[in-house]
Design the sequence.
């Protein structure tokens, strides 16, 4: 418990509020939070991922949900700075205390949560994850399966004393979950299907970490036809893994990442799902609302170098003047911790600067960040050698 409970301060008026529709079940489905991401080695960007997770917890309180589903890759790797982990643990302790543990956080391990490599190093011991730590502290419910057991014993009910189990029931909803089953989980899915009980009185959710083929260009995934047998026993297939949001056939749901992990994620529809399940005469109705989170803004700027620059100072001055002109609308008074301060992606196209114009991208990034109200800048360069090919190249 932290000294000052953040949620108690912000949501004091909601502390004793209850979901007035007691027969309904409401939950948030999120995934791929990637806590611990040190994107561009920028401290403010690292905090953005924790802020996104905090926003998910806040929304859970605001909407009076019954539980939160996390579809894996909650952490980006086993490597985590102690200060960041402490901040996450304290936040979850505050959340648990404020809600009186009435909103369970139910998670599975994704490939990043249990990855064997981090920044070039191999972790020799397997089976480790920060989610297991949070589970042992009673801050989350981590579901997993015994794949070697008979089908009727594969999904054991979650035991809050041993903190082990593969399924948990909340009201009329039964949630099943397993750890990441590899790039080709098809061989396991038939066993999983047999282990899921078909009960018309329960709404079955299966929490998994894999992608569907065709949802992300050039990224492999499971064929949609191969998972159709699950449909007869699963009402809501809750996925994680792909950072792009998609809904298929009104029973397969992938929310995408809450925060952009890489530049391409900025072009994806991402966020979380707010889901409400109601039961009427043994029939379940489902409503799914898409919620976008408050993310760091990003900008793309292109500067054309239509003449050869021979001097480092001239080069820096040229770049800064161009950016000052095109970004003059930005607010210079906000702090980098404010997500309104954007991340800049800068493309330099044209004639390659002279070899005498020696400046590293790191130095140029620093000068841009010191001059303009951007939290960081990623620089991409596409140069030609002479004016002869410049016109065609710029148009490319």
Sequence:
């Amino acid at each position: 418990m932290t000294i000052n409970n953040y949620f108690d301060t912000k949501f004091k008026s909601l502390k004793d509020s209850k979901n007035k529709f007691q027969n309904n079940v409401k939950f948030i489905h999120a995934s791929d939070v990637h806590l611990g991401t040190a994107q561009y080695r920028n401290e403010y960007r690292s905090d953005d991922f924790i802020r996104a997770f905090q926003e998910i917890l806040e929304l859970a309180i605001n909407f009076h949900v019954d539980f939160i589903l996390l579809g894996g890759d909650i952490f980006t790797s086993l490597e985590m700075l102690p200060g960041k982990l402490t901040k996450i643990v304290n936040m979850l302790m505050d959340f648990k205390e404020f809600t009186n543990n009435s909103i369970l956080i139910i998670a599975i391990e994704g490939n990043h949560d249990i990855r064997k490599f981090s920044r070039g190093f191999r972790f020799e011991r397997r089976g480790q994850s920060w989610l297991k730590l949070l589970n042992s502290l009673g801050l989350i419910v981590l579901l997993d399966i015994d794949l070697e057991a008979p089908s009727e014993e594969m999904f054991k009910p979650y035991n809050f004393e041993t903190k082990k189990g593969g399924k948990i029931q909340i009201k009329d909803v039964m949630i099943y979950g397993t750890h990441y089953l590899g790039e080709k989980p098809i061989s396991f899915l038939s066993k999983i299907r047999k282990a899921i009980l078909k009960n018309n009185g329960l709404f079955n959710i299966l929490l998994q970490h894999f992608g569907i083929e065709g949802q992300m260009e050039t990224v492999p995934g499971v064929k949609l036809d191969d998972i159709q047998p699950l449909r007869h026993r699963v009402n809501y297939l809750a996925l994680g893994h792909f950072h792009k949001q998609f809904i298929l056939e009104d029973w397969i749901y992938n929310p995408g990442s809450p925060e952009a992990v890489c530049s391409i994620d900025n072009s994806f529809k991402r966020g979380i799902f707010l889901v409400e399940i109601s039961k009427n005469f043994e029939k379940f109705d489902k409503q799914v609302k898409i919620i976008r989170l408050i993310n760091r803004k990003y900008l793309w700027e292109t500067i054309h170098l239509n003449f050869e620059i021979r001097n480092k100072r001239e080069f820096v001055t040229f770049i800064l003047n161009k950016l000052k002109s095109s970004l003059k609308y930005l607010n210079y008074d906000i702090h980098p911790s404010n997500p309104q301060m954007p991340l800049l992606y800068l493309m330099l196209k044209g004639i390659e600067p002279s070899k005498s114009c020696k400046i590293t991208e790191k130095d140029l990034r620093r000068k841009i960040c010191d001059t303009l109200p951007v939290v960081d800048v990623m620089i991409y360069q596409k140069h030609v050698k002479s004016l002869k090919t410049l016109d065609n190249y710029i148009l490319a």
